Amino acid sequence: MTEDVVSVETPGNRDDVLRILKRTGISGVPVTKEGRLVGIITRKDLLRKADETQLSLLMTSDPLTVPPDTTIEEAAEIMIKRNFRRLPVVENGKLLGILSVADLVGAVSQTKNSEEIRLRYTRPTFALWEDTPLPLVGRIMEISGYDAVPILNQDSMLTGIISERDLIKQALIEDSVEVSDLSNGTDDDEWTWESIRDMHTISFGISKVQLPLKPVKEAMIKEVVAVPQNAELSDCALKMKRSRVDQLPVTNGDKKMVSMLFDRDVIRALLEK
User: Fold this and answer.
1) Spatial separation of the C-alpha atoms in residues 170 and 183, rounded to whole Å
2) Least enclosed by CB within 10 Å: which of 178, 187, 222, 233?
3) Whole-model pTM?
4) Is there a contact between 111 and 105 (Cβ–Cβ < 8 Å)?
5) Is the Transmembrane keyword given for this protein (predicted)?
6) Average pLDDT score over residue span 201-224
7) Per CATH, is 117-163+215-271 categorized as 3.30.230.10?
8) Between these two residues, 65 and 188, which has the higher pLDDT value?
9) How does pLDDT run across 150-170, given as a tens digit for each residue?
10) Contact (Cβ atoms closer than 8 angstroms) between residue 90 and residue 66
């Protein structure tokens, strides 16, 4: 596990969480109250609840935790079955650390598993055109459930990868003022004292996490780490660990992308020993 955990205290500020995610590149932060774990806020929460500012409404409350004597096999099984990317490690109510998918990928890199990834670990994916605007990319990733998507140019060549981490780096806080009509809803157009009296409006501030309207090619990672179909699993896990990526494009003999290897699939090897 990672012991030196970055966390936020509630009540707190959403903007502080965004700054932490941008600065560190991590995918989520624990939320504590008076030293006790009460929730977790992830990149997905910020992107999906763009107009929410309260940590208590952004976070997943009472997250599943594990004790420090949990085995990595048990942790991998929980993450795979529950589709989690992290598990808080807690003892006597105190947060001791965080175990992430990346930590388990590091464990796989040490297993010397020589199985070829194409046999059981890769999966089909889809790609986006490099001029697709970022807000649309974010929405497509939200609908599809993919954390990362390969990017192609007009010649169908792989030119980059966009991930949630890259979207968060681009995210901006946009403040605006909206007006709400609280009138009695009458259709009477007469300018009478009664109708004027019943017309009420209220102005209120809106603060949203927004993605700038620019093409994905300006935000994507261009130096893509790819692997061939016959690559060995432990070698791929080591590439993920060293490059600090959650996925690897898989190419055929013609150097064209044919599938993806995701970290969640890599850690399945811990259950198949």
Assistant:
1) 39
2) 187
3) 0.76
4) no
5) no
6) 76
7) no
8) 65
9) 999 998 888 999 998 898 888
10) yes
